[in-house]
Amino acid sequence: MTKRNPNFANLKDHYLFPEINQRKKAFLAEHPEAKLISLGIGDTTEPLLPHITSTLCQGASSLGERDTYTGYGPEQGYSDLREIIAKTIYRGSVTPDEVFISDGAKCDIGRLQLLFGSDVSIALQDPAYPVYLDGSIMQGVSRITLLPCTPENDFFPDLTKAKGCDLLYFCSPNNPTGATATRQQLKSLVDFAREQRSIIIYDSAYSAYIQNSDCPKSIFEIEGAKEVALETSSFSKMAGFTGVRLGWTVVPKDLFFEDGSSVHKDWSRLISTLFNGASNIAQNGGLGVLSERGLEEVKTHIAFYLENARLLKEALENFEVYGGENAPYLWVKFPGKSSWEVFQEFLEELHLVTTPGSGFGPSGEGFLRFSAFSSRENVQKAIKRFSKISTFV
Ligand code: MLT
């Protein structure tokens, strides 16, 4: 009989969000009348604004005309989109041919892991977006170091614990804690990677939420980063494209493996073999997002979700709350109980879906993550329900 890939036996049974959905379904099966509000998965809720919508429609309409129909595009993405990302997001600090368009940061992280194989040692923030760990385990990576990020260290890890690691995963603004690294902190990360000759996989999917000018929006704002980092990012949380699916990864040409071979070259090889390019409609939408009018629309949405975060944070002021100022997530401590226990209490007592902190790693135990991706009406309803929190925590 066909043997199972043994790496899968090393994973938890469920990915975090399907597990939450199962608990939600089980609760609804017993309480079909419950009006659940989700502050759980970070999924955008607000409809696209007119200019961005029109560019997606144009992308679709052009497929209905003989003269403008396109089939497969370049696997690396359309050159005009690569150019506008290099110019608008990176202000020329990367070149268009270092930008690879994808169907989203999550999918690209999975492909990146394939680039490095199983014989690598990795270090990641704890708590962290589960894909870094689960995807690595699927690859057969076994040398894994968790770097605790807690209120005590201002959510910035002790890098000395990552000594000798080949790959360092780093996400800022952080999912789940909402902590955002300062220029000084990122400089120490880049200096450390240069000393160690390791590679940083930098996830900037939430960078559009950064308001503090002392917090870089990209690792490439730090001198020397192009020799040690690649960066993956996304239109999902910036432009409400969670369903449209569009992202990118920057792989600098200055990045090399130990044997002197080019990471950029291998990434091109991998992408052209395993990926047929992002949807042409989505890429047209991406051009719309990064146009002058699109960027204005994006600002409106970012301000909307950050205001949700502010309202939630204000309503939770009696608790220890982190994040929410440069990120759409709040990280809230509920001491003395496990995250899943508090998750269940929020579900049963308040009919609110949150995300248990321990689902992101052991240092998340005792915390819940609240997502600000919600309609204002639901945020206001959720806040009203918060008045009952003191009856169970
Ligand atoms: C989250 O809720 O952590 C994310 O939105 C899920 C994702 O981006 O895959």
Topology (elements, then pairings):
Layout: H1 16-30, E1 37-38, H2 50-62, H3 79-89, E2 99-102, H4 105-116, E3 121-126, H5 130-139, E4 143-148, E5 167-171, H6 183-196, E6 199-203, E7 229-234, H7 236-239, E8 247-250, H8 263-274, H9 280-289, H10 292-315, E9 320-323, E10 329-333, H11 339-350, E11 352-353, E12 355-356, E13 367-371, H12 376-386
Parallel strand pairs: 1-11, 3-4, 3-5, 5-6, 6-7
Antiparallel strand pairs: 2-8, 7-8, 9-10, 10-13, 12-13
The structure holds D-malate (MLT).
Kindly report how far apart the N and C termini lie. 51 Å
Architecture of the largest domain, CATH level 2?
3-Layer(aba) Sandwich
| Percent of residues in β-strands | 5-15%
Look at the structure and give the mean pLDDT.
97
Q: Largest sheet, described in full?
A: 7 strands, mixed
What is Rg?
21 Å
Number of helices, counting only DSSP H or I runs of 4 residues or more:
12
CATH class of the largest domain: Alpha Beta
List the ligand species: D-malate
The outline comes out as globular
Helicity, as a percent range: 25-40%
What order do the strands of the largest sheet run in, or round the barrel if closed?
A: 2-8-7-6-5-3-4
Classified in CATH, the superfamily of the largest domain is Type I PLP-dependent aspartate aminotransferase-like (Major domain)
| Poorly predicted segments | none
Pairing-aware structural class of the strands and helices? alpha/beta
Number of domains: 2
- At the fold tier of CATH, the topology name of the largest domain is Aspartate Aminotransferase, domain 2
State the total count of DSSP E strands.
13
Order of helices and strands: HEHHEHEHEEHEEHEHHHEEHEEEH
